[in-house]
Amino acid sequence: MDRLKEWVTDEAKFRLVRIVVSGIALVLSLGKWVTLPGGPDTAWIVVVLCGVPIIAGAVKAVVTERDITADVLVSLALLGSLYAREFFAAGEVAFIMEIGSALEDYTAAKAKKGIQELIRLLPKRARVRRAGKEETIPVEQVKAGDTLIVLTGETIPTDGILTAGTATVDQSVMTGESLPVDKTAGDTVIGGTVNRQGVFEYTATAEAADSSLQKMIDLAREADGNKAPIVRLADKWAAWLVAAAFTAAVLTFLVNRAFFTDPSAAFLRAVTVLVVVCPCAFILATPTAIMAGIGNATRYGMIVKSGEALQRFGTIDTVAFDKTGTLTCGKLSVVDIRALSPEFTRDAVLTLAAVAEARSEHPIGQAIRTAASTAEQASAYMVTPGKGIAAAYKGRRLLLGKADFLKEQGIALDAALADAYGEQGATVVFLAVDGKAAGLAALSDTLRESAAPMVRTLQNMHVASILLTGDNPAAAQHMAAKAGVSAVRSGLLPQDKQRIIREYQQAGHRVCMIGDGINDAVALRTADAAIAMGGIGSDIAIESSDVVLVQDDISRVPYLLSLSRNVLQKIQANIIISLFLNALATILAATGVLNAVTGALVHNAGSVFVVLNSLFLLSVKDTGWQ
Q1: Is the pLDDT of residue 103 over 70?
Q2: Residue 443: beta bridge partners?
Q3: Residue 10 CB coordination number (10 Å)
């Protein structure tokens, strides 16, 4: 509702009032049922409300910008009709143009706020140790070489190298990794990422202005600025249209003047030519088809933010996917439990692991507790950040964690087991009971059920797929193989994703990026078209995209591309129809078959035909594309 209020501005409300009042006035003018005080035609209301802004805009474009737009031709027809006292014709032209302008504004992209959301991720203050004293300073004052201290739950102020302590860092903001990363001395930390567990010190290697997050903000701004809007089609051809219309009108006047003794009759036919040549149907050809396409997409849970975006989707030949949260569900789950001792069953291993993780806030612990569904807790509990958990339960000593953690406690393990699961993109935690290996739990993100069928459908549409992810190569290759994506690039930072997309674009491809995370924002803005996951996607990804999948249903992607192609075809058909009708009406007007009023009605009929033709897009159904 708040977003709807943002779109319905005061200017839009005023325009709607103008259109309604002008429509009523135009009907009254046609029937001659009401006249204004003093006798003027009610069509003057339309001229004032809709026509004056058009004339003012045309004059401004010609005088200050030296540019001839479609409004110039409309202004000529409007002024000519007024001079010939054909007020209904003047009002009709202004009214149709106002509707076309309103439709174009309605389908235009609203200002995106993703960059502001990125800026909000930057921490305001940093805890720094200087000359042996700890103090809190504005993050802008941090210098390379400073020693910074980060507590659990805090955002890391800038890039650096960890020097003391251990931590579990959520780097999904920058890399999209599905799991937090354990950090120890010597590891790098990235500004803008979040310390989920542990307390550590690190040496800053960059000022806040040079941090990775700030660079991502700068890249997003650059990419957004490089994406030029589509120019209104009628304005592209405005100079030719004005020349053709003016030439047709002059020829009509000269030819008819040679056969009519009354110059006013020849002039009236020339004015009628200007009215019917007005590119109103031509102008409506694009926005009406786009509105119908956007309305259709909305029915299937796809929010299209702009008309020019919908047009870009119709040209896509390559789709780039993020992995975590896009092709996958974005949530860890237990995929396998294995007992390593005959003393324990699989259920016992899972239950004891859940007991050990009872108070853990780590995603691994949450996934294990969800799988086990037990409420029991250990009586003693100690966490070694980045390694594992030691707990006591019913007189037994439990150890749960990475292989290295258990080996440090003297537990013998087969390290090859972890490597085997790692090749499938899974993370392994081992359980030991009373000093002996008891079992293991393998956890992994899961592929969406619709991912593989969707990729196959794209291939049938001759659209290539590529996976771009910050995850490790094993996890990326495993998920890509299951989804049927052949091209895989892993271990990527946001700027790497942007670089790869640009490489595809430079090779002549039109790329659509689909993602859900903050780390995808730059790639989303760089791509020719972008789709964000609306259910689990970050606000920044949503604001950086052109289309939002409300229910995270990626099976709709092929339909979106197909619908966009249909929209482009409908626009082309509308343009051909409008040009044909204009040419036919011009001949009829020049020969006197149409007068100013009937010419205006035929002109209006052409606009209505284009609108109705576009509305057929609303009946197009998503047949599943399976």
Answers
A1: no
A2: 334, 427
A3: 7
**Residue 36 token pair:** 């204004």
The secondary structure element, H or E, covering residue 296 is helix 280-299
Sign of CA dihedral 265, 270, 275, 276: positive
What pLDDT was estimated at residue 321? 92
- Rounded CA-CA distance 517/434 in Å is 42
Reported as type and span, the H/E element at residue 392 is: strand 388-393
What sign does the dihedral 24-29-32-34 (CA atoms) show? Answer: positive
- The answer to whether residues 405 and 399 touch, using CB atoms and an 8 Å cutoff, is yes
Q: Are 525 and 224 in contact (CB under 8 A)?
A: yes
Token match 């780390």: residue?
A: 519
Q: For residues 162 and 535, give the distance between their C-alpha atoms in angstroms, rounded to a whole number.
A: 35
8 Å CB contact between 328 and 527: no
Say how far apart CA 286 and CA 574 lie, in whole Å: 8
Mean pLDDT for 234-253 is 72
Type of residue found at 262: D
pLDDT score of 198: 86
- Rounded distance between C-alpha atoms, residue 538 and residue 540, angstroms: 5
Provide the 10 A C-beta neighbour count for residue 617. 22
Q: How confident is the model at residue 107 (pLDDT cuts 50, 70, 90)?
A: very low
Beta strand segments in 453-570, E: 464-468, 487-489, 511-515, 529-533, 547-549
Write out pLDDT tens, residues 173-197. Answer: 665 555 678 888 888 888 878 888 8
Distances (CA, A) of 175 to 99, 127, 248, 376, 529: 46, 25, 62, 35, 21
Six token digits for residue 106: 């309605």
- For residue 319, what are the CA distances in angstroms to 313, 322, 346, 600? 10, 10, 41, 46
Q: What is the pTM of this model?
A: 0.62
Residue 256 identity (one-letter amino acid) = N
pLDDT of residue 509: 95
Report the C-alpha gap between 385 and 166 in whole angstroms.
6
Mean of pLDDT values over 572-594: 82
Cβ atoms < 10 Å from Cβ of 63: 9
**Has residue 72 got a pLDDT over 60?**
yes
Q: Tell me which H or E stretch contains 276.
A: helix 263-277
User: Which of 205-219, 360-374, 486-500, 554-568 is predicted with the least confidence, judged by mean pLDDT?
Assistant: 205-219
The answer to whether 213 and 121 have CB atoms below 8 angstroms apart is yes
Q: Pairing state of beta strands 511-515 and 318-321?
A: parallel
What average pLDDT does the segment 104-130 reach? 61
Give every CB contact of residue 101 below 8 A, 6+ residues apart in sequence: none
Q: Is position 67 annotated as part of the catalytic site?
A: no
381 touches 389 (CB < 8 A) = yes
CA–CA distance, 220 with 37 (Å, rounded to integer): 57
What are the φ and ψ backbone dihedral angles of 400, each rounded to 5 degrees? -140, 125
For the ranges 4-8, 77-81, 323-327, 592-596, which has the lowest average pLDDT?
4-8
Greatest Cα pair distance in the chain: 117
Per-residue buried b or exposed e for 478-487, using 16+ beta carbons within 10 Å of the residue's own CB: bbbebbebee
Beta-carbon contacts of 449 under 8 Å, excluding residues fewer than 6 positions away, are none
d(CA 506, CA 496): 15
Query: Which is catalytic among the residues 322, 445, 516, 546?
Result: 322
Per-residue pLDDT at 4: 41
